[in-house]
Amino acid sequence: MNRRVTLLFTLIAFVAAISLLGIDRAAAQSEGQIGGIVYEDANGNNIREVGEEGVRDVEVTFTTGAGDDIWETSIATAADGSFSIALNPSTWTVSIAVPAGFTAPNTSQEIFIEQAGDSVTNVEFGLIPAGTDTTGGEDGGDDEILPDSGGPISGSIVVAGLFGIMAVGGALVVIGQRRNSATAA
User: Fold this and answer.
1) Domain total in the chain
2) Quick check: 163 pLDDT over 90?
3) Is residue 31 part of a domain?
4) Residues 6+ apart with CB under 8 A from 43
5) pTM (predicted TM-score)
6) How far apart, in Å, are the Cα atoms of 89 and each of 8, 43, 148, 158, 164?
7) Predicted local confidence at residue 165, as pLDDT
8) What's the alpha-carbon Rg for the chain, to the nearest Å?
9) Domain limits at 84?
10) Which of 55, 62, 101, 61 is nearest to 82 (CA)?
11) 102 forms bridges with which residues in the sheet?
């Protein structure tokens, strides 16, 4: 009987620890979508216009987190300059590596994926061919300020929570064994 009680208390401690850590299994596995295009901005006005084609094989990097808990991945644009990736809800910095022969007035953007299923598919980066006269061009950026999400759960918090669960479970086992020893004597 005492082993069942110990197991029950260990299970309750585990569920409580997960609740306190804010770990949501469904949210941890659910994804949103970020997509867009990297295009050749022939006139350098930072606005995609008819005839301005996408640029293939541009490295697009997605970064989230802070301090020691930074997560990053990169993909290359498709033949038409498009890119798309499934990512967990968070605030993401989307940046490009400017290829040789181009300049870019904007190489990164902050994108907020609030919840699973959200999609932001209008991310655009204009690459200006080297030597293009950009005087008199207008800024097509929307300068939108996006709210900050908490980002992913810190690895140190998860490890600390697991150690706490093991400590509680171990203490309950010791208490159960002492009670068994006391009643057997």
Assistant:
1) 1
2) no
3) no
4) 49, 132, 134, 137
5) 0.57
6) 33, 35, 11, 18, 27
7) 72
8) 25
9) 36-129
10) 55
11) 129
CB 106 within 8 A of CB 142: no
Q: Is residue 20 part of a domain?
A: no
pLDDT value at position 31? 87
Residue 82 has pLDDT above 80, yes or no: yes
The answer to whether the CB of 23 falls within 8 A of the CB of 158 is: yes
Examine residue 30 and state whether it is found in any structural domain, yes or no: no
Residue 151 has pLDDT above 70, yes or no: no
Position 69 confidence tier, pLDDT thresholds 50, 70, 90: confident
Phi, psi angle pair for 170, to nearest 5°: -65, -40
- Bigger pLDDT: 23 vs 116: 116
